[in-house]
Amino acid sequence: MRDIQEIATAIDAEQPVTRAEADAVVRAIGRTCTGPFKSMSERTFREFLKRVGEDTAFTKEERESAIAIAQRAATAQADAAGIVAAFRTQGHVQGATLANSMFRAGCGQDLNEVILAGPLDGDEHLVPCPGCGREVSYRAPFIRTA
To answer: Can you give the pTM of this predicted structure?
Structure first.
């Protein structure tokens, strides 16, 4: 079997690859289910704000923006899902990622199994997670197999 980079180059050129090669490319990226949202307490929300304030991955501007987004969402009485949605709506990927990690139960199911069980057609799919039942959406890669 070719190495991952060679396979990816063939896929990008829309050349057919073997099913084993397609599987290897999909599995090269770890994808796990984040699980359902947990109920959010005031304490959890304060811990989230504290983590945002201490996270060195955020620039000062990103940190201030994340805190403002979370506080506006909380003022509007948003639940955990609403806070994550507020970050996504504002295009704040780091805030959404951190909120997801803190406000979800963490199923951990390998979603590559789900992707590989379906068509590799480049389309959006909505399926239940086999681990927790949460609706999971993903865009399948477009891979021609020989």
So the answer is: 0.69
- Looking at the 3D structure of the chain, how many domains does it have? 2
> Within this chain, do residues 12 and 55 fall inside the same structural domain, yes or no?
no
129 in any annotated domain = yes
One domain for residues 96 and 114? no
- What does the pLDDT look like over 69-126, one tens digit per residue? 999 988 888 899 999 999 999 999 999 999 988 999 989 999 999 999 999 999 999 9
Neighbours of 135 (CB within 10 A): 9
Based on the domain organization, do 98 and 82 belong to the same domain?
yes
Q: Are the beta carbons of 53 and 67 closer than 8 angstroms?
A: yes
What is the share, in percent, of the chain residues with pLDDT greater than 90?
Answer: 73
Which residues, 6 or more positions from 24, have their beta carbon under 8 angstroms from its beta carbon?
A: 1, 4, 7
